[in-house]
Amino acid sequence: MTEDRTPTLTLPLSEGGLGWGSSVYFQGENLTPFMSQKPLALAAQSRVLNNAPLVVMCLLVVDSLHFVFARLLLPYLPPTPAAMYVLGVSTVQVAVFLAIWDKIDFGVFRRFAWFFLGIGFLVAASTVLSYASVAFIDPGTASMLGKLSTLFSLGFGLIWLRDRFNRWQSLGALLALVGTFTIAFQPGEFIWVGVVMVIASTFMYALHAALVKRHGHSMGLADFFLFRLACTTAFLLLFTVGRGELVVPGWQAWLILLLAGTVDVTISRTLYYLTLRRLTLSIHALILTLSPAVSIGWTILLFDIEPTAQQLIGGVAVVAGVLLVSLNQERG
Q1: CB–CB of 140/298 below 8 Å?
Q2: How many Cα atoms are found within 13 Å in the side-chain-facing hemisphere of 35?
Q3: SS3 label, residue 117
């Protein structure tokens, strides 16, 4: 029996984090339609981007910042307009980049309008919940809980693709659930509110990723990413107006918004694709599973908030369980 060496492209669809652990897999010999040649040519010419250890370290840093940026914006803006502006910044950046270095195919949106609107709604709702959760739970603990998106994604695989969990994957899922309950149930605390928000957010994001995996194979990656960002931003605008929260940010808020849109979405996704081309899926999953540790470091440094012993124990259980499921999925 010959070894399957079919190249695999993993498409992450989080704006950070959220979930930033969810993945969509495309398999086939011809991956050219999914990647723009000009950006790849620019990346190949850069010595910095070809320095794999440096790129991996940068990926770990930026992948850990989703909930950190949400917490930084909390004193300046409500969660919904904050998310809208962050996604809006990234949408403009990606659109300008494609307009200069490639071209935007609006026919893709016309052919798949309902698809983009559906996943745009899911990502928008997911992002609002993740931004709102940091009012109740610290970014480091939220980042650990966000790794549950991997379990939800595999759960959709069980339903739609009739996949099966092996013994180790079942053990990993059970360990992650025990960790979640350990974090959530603390007497006299409202942490459970933030936990529920993060879980709902990761579920919506995993559902969107499953829909993309099932229906998103026939479009180019660049156009897909742009229209997904644009539809997400549009729904966030509708949510903001509907809640009467449309405000003009001050200059301090704009500095954070510009940084968050650039780092948490644009740069983070570029580094994700770059490292994916250089690493095996197992190592790639391992790196992203380590990002909550960096989030905890940012939380201590920027907010002087240390997770409690119970939160750390629960978070370690979640990450360990997700890692156990991910690595065994790769072997399978």
Answers
A1: yes
A2: 20
A3: helix
* Distance (Å) of CA 293 to CA 141, 264, 323: 9, 17, 14
Q: Does residue 103 surpass a pLDDT of 90?
A: no
Decide if 135 is inside a domain: yes
From 168-172, 251-255, 270-274, the region with the lowest mean pLDDT = 270-274
**What is the mean pLDDT of the segment spanning 100-119?**
91
Q: How many structural domains are present in the chain?
A: 1
Q: Are 101 and 40 in contact (CB under 8 A)?
A: no
Kindly report the backbone phi and psi dihedral angles of residue 24, in degrees, each rounded to the nearest multiple of 5, phi listed first: -125, 130
Mean of all residue pLDDT scores within the chain = 77
Q: For residues 105 and 223, give the distance between their C-alpha atoms in angstroms, rounded to a whole number.
A: 7
Q: With residue 135 as reference, give the H or E element that holds it.
A: none
Lowest mean pLDDT among 18-27, 42-51, 239-248, 311-320: 18-27
Q: Could you tell me the residue range of the domain that residue 131 belongs to?
A: 53-331
Spatial separation of the C-alpha atoms in residues 243 and 44, rounded to whole Å = 45
Residue 149 placed within a domain: yes
At position 243, the amino acid (one-letter code) is: R
The span from the CA of 246 to the CA of 54, in Å, is 40
Counting Cα atoms < 13 Å in the Cβ hemisphere of 187 gives: 0
Q: Is residue 4 part of a domain?
A: no
Decide: 306 and 87 in contact? Cβ < 8 Å: no
Determine, yes or no, domain membership for 8.
no
Q: What stretch of H or E contains 11?
A: strand 8-11
- Distance of alpha carbon 48 from alpha carbon 276, whole angstroms: 16
pTM metric for this prediction: 0.75
Query: Which of 22 and 55 is assigned the larger pLDDT?
Result: 55
How big is the CA angle at 110 (ends 126 and 9), to the nearest 5 degrees? 55
Least confident among 14-28, 57-71, 177-191, 289-303 = 14-28
Tokens linked to 2: 């010959």
Helix axis angle for 139-146 and 66-73, nearest 10°, is 140
pLDDT cut 70: percent of the chain above it:
71
